[in-house]
Structure formats: C-alpha cells, structure tokens
Design a protein that fits this description.
Length: 317
C-alpha cells in the first residue's frame, strides 16, 4: 500500500516507522532480522532501506595499492523484497541520483514494479566520501527534482526510450527529503524550500525530514512549507543520540544544531550507556510533542540498531 494511503487509513493516529541500512557485503541478513524483530510489535506500516554510495577502497596487489570503486553495502532492493516477504510490511527503497545512470534507475524501478514495491524515496544522495561536493554521475541526475520527474514519467508510462500505453501498473508513491535546518548546500532556508516545492510540483507525495533535535525547528519548517502551498504529508525524522561522539559528528555530517540542554545532558554522562539513556529520553519527549501536534508518522533513524528505538516506541505506541 502507498504511504499516503497508510496515512489516510490511520485517520489522524500517528504511525511508527523506521529506517535501516543494508549489512556490509558478505554478512548474513540474520543480524538485520534480529534487530528488526523486536520493533515489529509496534506495527510499522513501512520500513525504509537506505542506499549507500560507492566508495574507493585500496587493495594490495603485487606490493602496490590498487584503487577500486565498490559499494560496501549493496542490496537495498533485495533487502526490501526480503523484509516485505518475511514481515508482510511495506518497504521503501531509497533511490539515489548519485552512482546511477538514468537507465540503471529505470531498471531498478521496473524491478520494484515486479516486486510490488509501490513506494520509493527519491534522493540526490550524498557526495562520495572523498568528494567535498556532490558530482553527478555520468548519464545520471544532478538533483532529486530530476529523479522525481523520471519516476513520474514512468508513472505515466513514459520510459526513457519507450512509451507504454495504459500499462495497467500502479503508480509509485514518491517520498522526498526536507530540511528543517536547510540542506548544507542551500544558500538559504527559503531557497531550499523553493526546491522542495519544485519536488512537490513534479509529483512528490510526501516528505521525510532530516533529523532535528529542537521541535520548534520542525514546526517552523512545516509552517513555512504550508505557507508556500506545500500541502503533502511531512513526516519528522528522529535520531536518538547514542554515543558522546554524536555531539560533534551529527552537526558535522548532517549540518544541524543541537540544543544546549541536550549537549549539557550528554556531556554530564559518565559513559555511553548513560548517553543512550539521555538520547532515548530526549527522543521520547520530542516524539510525544510531535504526536500531540498531529504528525502523521514518527520515523526513526534506527540504522539497524533496535534497542533504543524499541525503548522509545514502548513509550509511544
Ligand atoms: N530520508 C533520507 O534518507 C534523507 C536523506 N538525505 C540525504 O541528503 C542528501 C541530499 O538529497 P536531496 O535532499 O534529495 O537532494 P536535492 O537535490 O533535493 O537537494 C540538494 C541540494 O540542491 C539544491 N537543489 C535542489 N534542486 C535544485 C535545482 N534544480 N537547482 C539548484 N539547486 C537545487 C537543494 O536546495 C539542496 O541544497 C542526500 O544525500 C540524501 O541521501 C537527507 C535527508 C533525508
Ligand atoms: N545527508 C544525509 N545523508 C543520509 O544518508 C541521510 C540523511 N542525511 N538524513 C536522513 C537519513 C538518516 N541517515 C542516517 C545515517 C547515519 C546515521 C548515524 O548516526 N550514523 C553513525 C554516525 C555517522 C558516521 O559515522 O558518519 C552512527 O554513529 O550511528 C544516522 C542517520 C541516513 N539519511
């Protein structure tokens, strides 16, 4: 079922969902199941599976280091199919501009059709690790707007090199990213919102936000989006802080601010067990307030670890 239909069906009740990353290539999927199992009692209508960029690795060959481009966590679509089958849950693969040609994206979407995967998250993707800025892949898209356009074209039967009249296939429900604290490359929040509006005009059906730790930022963002005429569901993304290192890492990687109260609470912790507790409590407070405000879904960036998300979900769902 489409995410937008799950939201309609919930009739104002806030839903629970989460996001995972594929395991490192060569590892079994069992560990992932072990982490998902404890979350299924909270009845997520959907689970997101991220797609990782390719990266350079260095392999020794004849005493020399050889530079090779590889994906260390492939398998997004396979995992989506597996989870859908095992748990009877909708799965949402993240479809990226970076690392894929338009043809490869088309074939991925055709695979989604055969697997009856009706939802996709359309993202530009991050820059590769060694790059400072995102550079488009040859033959691929530069912005998520273009990717949304390609998916909408397919929804209308317009493939890259063929047009199929009335294919009888359903259409994809398209999720896109939104940034309450603006995307790191956007010159202003207003211009970032304009880009979001473009994605909506091109056919995006719902928004999932970047993580944030101050709900006011989310409320302001939703207010500004509504004022611009963005009227699709906006789902908040929530990340529980788990280790002290996150204080430096999260602002750096995701270009977000942390509230001083949260920083003080984390800094006062003796060990990471205490940090996890602070992170869980913060996320519970955030979630309660967001639910009170009527958000359609609370989407957790669990990234494959279930215990803190379980502790949060237990308080809310
Ligand atoms: N739920 C998720 O998985 C999320 C993923 N992300 C990640 O964040 C990164 C950015 O992805 P998206 O937001 O999808 O990218 P996007 O293409 O929508 O935006 C990227 C940047 O380009 C600007 N921009 C967009 N369209 C433009 C255009 N036509 N002309 C000029 N500038 C334009 C935007 O303001 C923004 O600064 C990706 O790495 C994505 O994986 C971010 C938030 C949530
Ligand atoms: N720019 C960007 N890229 C993404 O891939 C992305 C977002 N933003 N925001 C929304 C979701 C959330 N994602 C993530 C990814 C990793 C962690 C995370 O906490 N990872 C490590 C630290 C990061 C690192 O080492 O680079 C961790 O400690 O768990 C959280 C959310 C992926 N998605």
């Amino acid at each position: 079922m489409k995410i937008t239909d799950h939201i309609k069906k919930a009739n104002g009740e806030t839903l629970f969902s989460f996001e995972i990353v594929p395991p490192v290539k060569g590892k079994s999927i069992q560990e992932l199941y072990n982490n998902i199992d404890p979350l299924m009692e909270f009845k997520p209508p959907f689970i997101d599976v991220t797609t990782s960029r390719e990266e350079y690795v260095y392999k020794e060959k004849g005493g020399l280091l050889e530079k090779k481009m590889t994906r260390t966590r492939p398998g997004t679509l396979g995992i989506c199919a597996s989870l859908k089958h095992k748990y009877d849950v909708d799965t949402v693969p993240h479809v990226l501009c970076g690392g894929f040609t338009k043809e490869e994206t088309e074939y991925l979407l055709v695979d989604c059709q055969y697997l009856e995967i009706e939802n996709v998250m359309a993202l530009r993707g991050d820059a590769r690790k060694e790059e400072k800025y995102f550079t488009p892949t040859k033959g691929g898209h530069r912005y998520a707007t273009e990717l949304v356009e390609q998916i909408q074209n397919i929804n209308q039967g317009n493939y890259l090199h063929d047009t199929i009249e009335s294919s009888g296939l359903g259409s994809f429900c398209i999720g896109v990213a939104g940034y309450p604290e603006k995307h790191m490359e956007a010159p202003s929040l207003q211009s970032d919102l304009k880009r979001l509006k473009q994605k909506v005009e091109l056919g995006a059906d719902y928004v999932v936000t970047q993580m944030f730790f101050d709900n006011q930022k989310f409320f302001d963002f939703v207010g500004a989006a509504r004022e611009m005429g963005i009227d699709i569901p906006i789902i908040p993304g929530i990340k529980p802080i788990a280790v002290k290192r996150h204080l430096q890492l999260l602002p750096h990687v995701f270009s977000i601010d942390l509230p001083q109260d949260l920083i003080d609470a984390v800094e006062a912790c003796q060990d990471n067990k205490a940090v996890r507790q602070v992170g869980v409590e913060w996320a519970i407070q955030q979630s309660k307030e967001l639910r009170e405000a009527g958000v359609p879904v609370l989407h957790y960036y669990s990234m494959g670890k279930s215990d803190n998300v379980k502790a949060i979900a237990k308080e809310l769902f």
